[in-house]
User: What shape does this take?
Amino acid sequence: MSIKAVLFDLDATLLPMDQNKFIEEYFKSLSAKMSKYGYEPKKLIEAMWSGVKAMVLSTGEKTNEESFWDAFKAVFGDKALNDIEIHKDYYENDFDALKIVCGYTPKANELIKHLKKKEITVVLATNPVYPLIATEKRIGWAGLDKNDFALVTTFENSHFCKPNPNYYKEILEKLNLKPEECIMVGNDALEDMAAEKIGIKVFLLTDNLLNPKNLDVSKYPQGSFEELYSFLKNLI
Assistant: This one.
């Protein structure tokens, strides 16, 4: 069956970055903002990780947004919900400073434009642990247009996270796609290659390879961005 859709990870795939460095700077930046409103940095970061864990462990009854704020509220009480607007202000006015931590490749935009000319559906399958506004910012840093994507996964519109196969199933259901019609491209050996479990073809981008569990990745098609481009052109 021919390929109808390509799913792309964002961080360290379309947007080059050292993900550990980015998360470190992200928490440092967020803590600096929130400390002005009574959030002790260490406790804040613990609450953020608690929220991420809740999203990763979600069984689908709630959106990731609901799972996150339930976990965050368990640490800070009703104050957390009262201060949601402060978090939104952070993403609107402070988050852009993190762009300097990221790289940039014009190849990302070139590849997506090429796929769209071929009438291929393009999906931004970034792990939906961030709100829409933070994801739109990172799309912009990558030199991309959010309107190029048929779907952008965020914590508002998703009920699961990578590497849960249900994350990928939810995308296919929303876009009425079959697994064999799709390919997932990403740099994370665990999270992105999990798409293969439901029959989606995969390509492991090695430019910023993330494989903390030292998984055997020899079975996956893989390579640099240039090799990805050639792989997709031959496949489609």
